[in-house]
């Protein structure tokens, strides 16, 4: 069992967990992910590592409630435990040794962007500029953490409630148009955001990496559920990724595959919420 040592509320729907997992910390690197399960018979879901401490033997994950399983995880408290916590899985993020790197985190994607910016910030010849964004100011997460590992932090919100009024890609485009040095871009977040980032950098031949999060079952390349098309070839995000050259990703296909089971996921989530309300109300209404 993998015990939760610390829980922190980042937003009403986003929680941070520090988990006791010393075996996972031995080889974990920025970009790796874990697959977790709350209990016997539960769904196994992949979560990118948001931080780690080798000395303490802990892994930090961030969970945003978007469906049944994420809601079940976010109900866990300090002292509770995961029955499964498998990792590290995937390939570590391909990080440069020099130059100005722009790390982009959109929404929930800020969490996995953090350990990448943190590692780059420790490299002597790398300068880190981070761009993070959310729909509104109250949904922005880990701003202080990102600022601590960036020479320059730029915040934006869709509604203009904090920082730049607009998308993260708008800030990136302004940097390029303004002649600012940008040697490499690493973007993590919703599929539309990563796709838009790729289109901003494509005309300039600017090296850009994105982290794909397709439907995943086993995380070891056996099931084939997480297949993606990269430069016309089939790859598995769990073993070949999750990071890929953004300009080679078939985003249209990836977007369709991510949405394959949206209706089923919505039904499961709705059923969970109704059952949860009944338990809290002390009974089932007829």
> What is the N-to-C order of secondary-structure elements (H for helix, E for strand)?
EEHEEEEHEEEHEHEEHEHEEEHEHH
Named at the architecture level, the CATH assignment of the largest domain is: 3-Layer(aba) Sandwich
Gyration radius (Cα, Å) is: 19 Å
Q: What oligomerization state is this entry in? A: single chain
Overall 3D geometry?
globular
CATH homology superfamily of the largest domain: Nucleotide-binding domain of ferredoxin-NADP reductase (FNR) module
Question: What proportion of the residues is helical, as a percent range?
Answer: 25-40%
Beta-strand share of residues? 25-35%
Q: What would you note in describing this structure?
A:
With 286 residues, this protein is of the alpha/beta class. α5 (168-177) packs parallel to α6. The protein has two domains: 2-89, Translation factors (Elongation Factor Tu (Ef-tu), domain 3); 93-205, 3-Layer(aba) Sandwich (Rossmann fold), CATH 3.40.50. The chain is globular. The chain has helices spanning 22-25, 68-74, 110-121, 143-148, 168-177, 191-201, 237-240, 251-258, 262-281, and strands at 2-11, 14-20, 33-37, 45-48, 51-53, 58-64, 81-82, 84-89, 98-106, 125-134, 152-157, 164-165, 184-188, 208-211, 227-230, 233-236, 243-245. A hairpin with a 2-residue loop joins β1 (2-11) and β2. The strands form four sheets. Strands 12-11-10-9-13-14-17 form a seven-stranded mixed beta sheet, with helices on both faces. A five-stranded antiparallel beta sheet has the order 5-6-2-1-7. Strands 4-3-8 form a three-stranded antiparallel beta sheet, with no helix packed on it. The chain is 29% helix and 32% strand. The protein contains nine helices and 17 strands.
